[in-house]
C-alpha cells in the first residue's frame, strides 16, 4: 500500500512538470519583455531620482546616470516637510480603509440577511451613485464643508469617503451564496448580529476584505483633487499635493520631485504586492455561482 501511494505521488509530480519546449522558452521571453515594458516608467523614474541635477539634460546619460547619488532623497526632506505629508496621507488612507471596511460589511450584512421594507430600492440607489463621477459633485461638497468650517483639517479628507458603494457591492456579491440557514442557526443559538458579523461572516470573506483594503488604501493614498481643494497649509496637506509643489523650472527641483515621487510610491507598492493575490480573489468572488 505504501509503495502504491509513493508511485501515485511520483506520477502526479511527473504530470505536473511540463516539458521544456521551444514554445515555453519563447513564452518566457515574451513575458520578460512585456514586464520590462510595463516597468519601464518605474525604472526610468528610479534612474532619474539618483541622477545629479547637472546630468539631467546630458544626452549621454539619458537612462543611466554617470555619477549616481542618493543625496536627492535626503534633499527632498530638507526642501519640503515630506515627513508631515506622508504622515497625513497615511492617517487619511488608513482611516478611509478601516471605515469603508466597517460600513461595507455592515451594509452587506443588512442587505443579505435582514428583512425590511424598501431594501431593494435602497440597494439600487446606492449602486446608482457609482454612475455619478466625483467631479460632478466636488464643488457642492466643497461649499458644504466650507460652510461648516471644516477646511484645512484631516477629517474633511476622511469623512466624505467613509462609505463606498463599490465596496458594498463587492461584499453583497461575496455573500450571495452564503447559506441563510447559518444565520438562522446562529440566531437560535443566541448569537447577536454583531457577533455573527465578526466571528462568522468576516473570516469567510477574507479575500473580498483584502481586495477592498487594497482598493480603499490606494484610493485614499492617491487622492489629489479633493485635498488640493480643501487644504491650504503644510500641516494638513497630503503627499500627492506636497510632491507636486516641488516642481519648478530648474533641474534641481525636477530631480527632487522625482525622488519624492519614488519615496511616496513605496507604501502603495508594498500594499499592492502584499494584497495582490487577495485582490484578484476578492474581485472574482461571487462572479461564478455553484
UniProtKB/TrEMBL annotation:
<feature type="transmembrane region" description="Helical">
    <location>
        <begin position="20"/>
        <end position="44"/>
    </location>
</feature>
<feature type="domain" description="ABC transmembrane type-1">
    <location>
        <begin position="86"/>
        <end position="275"/>
    </location>
</feature>
<dbReference type="GO" id="GO:0005886">
    <property type="term" value="C:plasma membrane"/>
</dbReference>
<dbReference type="InterPro" id="IPR035906">
    <property type="entry name" value="MetI-like_sf"/>
</dbReference>
<dbReference type="GO" id="GO:0055085">
    <property type="term" value="P:transmembrane transport"/>
</dbReference>
<keyword id="KW-1003">Cell membrane</keyword>
<dbReference type="InterPro" id="IPR000515">
    <property type="entry name" value="MetI-like"/>
</dbReference>
<feature type="transmembrane region" description="Helical">
    <location>
        <begin position="121"/>
        <end position="142"/>
    </location>
</feature>
<feature type="transmembrane region" description="Helical">
    <location>
        <begin position="90"/>
        <end position="114"/>
    </location>
</feature>
<keyword id="KW-0812">Transmembrane</keyword>
<comment type="similarity">
    <text>Belongs to the binding-protein-dependent transport system permease family.</text>
</comment>
<keyword id="KW-0813">Transport</keyword>
<feature type="transmembrane region" description="Helical">
    <location>
        <begin position="196"/>
        <end position="218"/>
    </location>
</feature>
<dbReference type="Pfam" id="PF00528">
    <property type="entry name" value="BPD_transp_1"/>
</dbReference>
<protein>
    <submittedName>
        <fullName>sn-glycerol 3-phosphate transport system permease protein</fullName>
    </submittedName>
</protein>
<keyword id="KW-0472">Membrane</keyword>
<feature type="transmembrane region" description="Helical">
    <location>
        <begin position="154"/>
        <end position="175"/>
    </location>
</feature>
<feature type="transmembrane region" description="Helical">
    <location>
        <begin position="254"/>
        <end position="274"/>
    </location>
</feature>
<keyword id="KW-1133">Transmembrane helix</keyword>
